[in-house]
What does this fold into?
Amino acid sequence: MSLYRYSSPAAFYPLAGMMAPWFAGAALLCTVAGLWIGFGIAPTDFQQGEAYRIIFIHVPSAWMSMFVYLVMGFWSVLALSFNTRLSAMMAQALAPTGAIMTFVALWTGALWGRPTWGTYWAWDARMTSELILLFLYFGVMALRSAIDDPRRADRACAVLTIVGSVNIPIIYFSVQWWNTLHQGASVSLTAAPKMASIMLLGMLVMSFAAWFYAIAVVLWRVQAIILERERGAAWVAELPKLRSAVA
Amino acid sequence: MLFAGLGFSVAAGKALVITGPNGTGKTTLLRILAGLTLPAGGTIRWRGEAVVPYAAGLREETLYAGHFAALKDELTAEENLRSLVSLSGAEPSDADLRAALAAAALAEKRLLPARVLSQGQRRRIGLARLALLARPLWLLDEPATALDTTGLGLLAELIARQLDSGGAVIAATHQPLDLPTDAVDRLVMG
Amino acid sequence: MLFAGLGFSVAAGKALVITGPNGTGKTTLLRILAGLTLPAGGTIRWRGEAVVPYAAGLREETLYAGHFAALKDELTAEENLRSLVSLSGAEPSDADLRAALAAAALAEKRLLPARVLSQGQRRRIGLARLALLARPLWLLDEPATALDTTGLGLLAELIARQLDSGGAVIAATHQPLDLPTDAVDRLVMG
Amino acid sequence: MSATATTATESPYGAFGALRWAVARDLKLALRSRAELGVQLLFYVIVVTLFPLASSPEKTLLATMGPGVLWVAALLASLLSLPRLFASDFADGTLEQIALSPYPMPALVFGKILAHWLTTGLPIVVLAPLLGLQYGLDVPALTVVTLSLLIGTPILSLLGAIGASLTLGVRGGGSLLALLILPLYVPVLIFGAGAADAVRAGLSASANLSLLGAGLLLAFVGAPFATAAGIRIALD
Amino acid sequence: MSATATTATESPYGAFGALRWAVARDLKLALRSRAELGVQLLFYVIVVTLFPLASSPEKTLLATMGPGVLWVAALLASLLSLPRLFASDFADGTLEQIALSPYPMPALVFGKILAHWLTTGLPIVVLAPLLGLQYGLDVPALTVVTLSLLIGTPILSLLGAIGASLTLGVRGGGSLLALLILPLYVPVLIFGAGAADAVRAGLSASANLSLLGAGLLLAFVGAPFATAAGIRIALD
Ligand code: HEM
Ligand SMILES: Nc1ncnc2c1ncn2[C@@H]1O[C@H](COP(=O)(O)OP(=O)(O)OP(=O)(O)O)[C@@H](O)[C@H]1O
Ligand SMILES: Nc1ncnc2c1ncn2[C@@H]1O[C@H](COP(=O)(O)OP(=O)(O)OP(=O)(O)O)[C@@H](O)[C@H]1O
Ligand SMILES: [Mg+2]
Ligand SMILES: [Mg+2]
It folds into this structure.
């Protein structure tokens, strides 16, 4: 019952404002710690030298790029089936962050590919499907900006997001299904890790940093979207913060 | 918010004629009733029960004729009519189709592609469609557009027949429809 | 052959109202007069001289308003109006544009994209265009479509003003236009 | 005049009737303009023959490019015809009537997609082996390319319909549609063109083909519903 | 309210005013939907990146294919956007008003074509060098490809406009247009892509480029009139 209350933008707005700084702080802490582990403590790799340290950025962003899409899909399902405005706004707020994460994964991957495989880019299944993911994010954002009725845009983007989510398993399993340049999963819940535990720790801490960053940014963005969309509503006019800003 | 605090109902055998200045929401209201547009709030009841847009029961029992004639330029008048009527679930015989076209004064234009028909002739195909579809509820948006005097007479006759057979009609219009006054309720918007 | 043996003329300060059943060639006739459709035969004279379709003089002195409003859904009412009027060669000031829109009761809708306007509001942009274009000859096809009572009043006023200033009007219509009878000639087709 | 039974407990408006209506009508419309079918094919032929023109025509290179070009051309032919799938029905109000028809909308939509494939996809499948010869492909490669097109082009039509419905009435329709739909097309393209590559490399194409088959199944189950939802959104 | 001078001996409705009206209006329309320009470009990028996907990604092959792919993609982007050049103006009646405007119609039409090129052709020219890098083209080859696109894409827009006007209101417009216009496009493609091939083979590209330039001149002089005539026919 109390959770249900927060499905209204008016109720969620202050909650988001309250939570976002905490997540931002946690993101900062984890980033500092993760970078310190990754670039200070973790030993040089005997095969790849220093270049492997890109892993501390590459892997968290690659994971997030897929995860953000799944979360977007989740909100889209809610938005379509219950016609709730907040879910659609959440999905809208997630897309740019997802696109950035995807871009970072592609970018760092390409930078990493140069020293290890001798090329920035190859049409390998995982890279290709990750590129497709980027285009999917672009597609969702382009579709939204092409429709000016927000209600219609919400629902159209939800349909597209749900349809596009078939790409996620393709990215994830591409290394298993095809014989690719890209290496397979080295972190798994069932098998023992194949990595030095300090490297693993660094990656995990950086992953948390990415998580917290994404949550904080999305909360702030959703606040902006709520304000923009509900600018006609009475509760927005009564926002004390806004009034002091105007004064 | 285009309109709020609007409440009305229409009974079998009755027509509700919606009038009002341009832009007061007549078309929007009809589209909401048909289920095409999602209302920001409010309830629509059909036979006493609240219905959601695109409910199967609603689609089977209502007929919506909007601004667009839904004609294909490449098909002849008769093909267009048959296609539209069977999309709505009825399967009229060829004789029925021709009778309806003849009643709409389109007998001679039956085999012409819709592209070369005049504006009024295109609307008359819509009238022939009404004649073939005995649905409990008709939703008509500006049914009198582009019709000449005989066309208006045919429209009035079709509506009267629908009301006689226990159907209901909701029509938005700027032109007088010439219906028996006792069967008509009026809703003035704006 | 849609019609033959038709002869008529319209003088400055006079309106010619064309009526007749659906499909008798009113639209076709207007399009021929505008130069859009090639007639199978016959002569069109303008200021006493025979003219060919798309003659520069004809294009500069006539204004054709057909079934289509020539509006872009993406542009606002005001942008649409400015674009249409300047395509016809006039360069009205912003104040003129707003005055014309206000006269058409579109002052509040000025900045809305045409997509969300109602059918009647779209036609009213056409009326505002008429107000801004003082051409010697107006060719109007069904100008009353979708207009409410005030819209019809505005239309009648615009035509009257055009006639007063020595212009001529040829209009095809099914609805009565409410013009001063002495200024109107009638042509009944079909 | 006919009246429809509205009180029956079981709806008389079945999916099959809907399918028949949509296929019959769209095929009639496609055949009405006699030139249409030929034009579609000619476009495909021209695109396929353009590539050797634009690149240098060495023999081994040609055979390598062959399946890829056949597939890319199929994909482009599909993209080019998609905006028309619903546009005219949307503009003239037919789509409103389809959405309000008592027949199940996904079935009506599927009928339209089927007709689209029959008029644009199937001719391409039939023509592909002939054009493949031009690229010096051998019989096993030709067979696999054709087979992969036979399974793959319906996926293109099904996925494309989703994009077409979502971009209805949206400005920049054609290219927005391309942007939305190409990411979904790429896996189809990869498996499709990959099948022939596998055969030319002496491997079996069955993995690729069964992945394509799975894709077709998925698209077949999901696309009509997603498209119907897209159309309803566009009409709102 | 303003009145226009109708008795001037010299017509006040000059070609320049017409050009300005058409370019300003079409650019405004194109910019109105913010996504549009980006989408056009993304389409081009995706098509260009598709080819290596479908064929096998060997380095020398890539460099050979490069200019051809850049050109074919430009051609397809042009083809895809052409049906929209006049279609919406035709459907909503603007084209009638354009035909009846006191301004010279070829100038109005040329303005529309210019706006079309500015929004679809020019961005492609700007982007081509970047995409060419991806194919491993060297600087001389890149320069020539870009130059050939700069001269060639306006020809595509001009010729395409003729086809677009002739297929107005005709069913199957998109592919019929493609069919009409591709034969005219092919020479442009051959000279355009050929210029880069010449440079890679160590020859001079100037012959190809001056042929392209001559083509541009011819299209510039002829196309607006042919297109205006096509539109008048479509309106009849
Ligand atoms: C642009 C090129 C690249 C892209 C698009 C890319 C994409 C991805 C993605 C999506 C993941 C997460 C999927 C998963 O965890 O299974 C990932 C993980 C990973 N990538 Fe990349 N990558 C690229 C280049 C590289 C390169 C060059 C290397 C190193 C040689 C590399 C090493 C890794 C490693 C070690 C992981 C973690 C795998 C795991 O532990 O599960 N990647 N990459
Ligand atoms: N997105 C929107 N933003 C602002 N106003 C809108 C929007 N969508 C619709 N409207 C307004 O809603 C009204 C639409 O009304 P509707 O088409 O239902 O009118 P109508 O009563 O049918 O008019 P007419 O008699 O002209 O057909 C118009 O006044 C229009 O300006
Ligand atoms: N190619 C053709 N073949 C046969 N008849 C044609 C052709 N083109 C037009 N017509 C006929 O010409 C007439 C067109 O008339 P027009 O559109 O001018 O009528 P109108 O008087 O404006 O009618 P309305 O009042 O309905 O607008 C129609 O009767 C149509 O059937
Ligand atoms: Mg209305
Ligand atoms: Mg008419």
About this structure: Residues 16-183+194-246 of chain A form a domain with the Four Helix Bundle (Hemerythrin (Met), subunit A) fold (CATH 1.20.120).
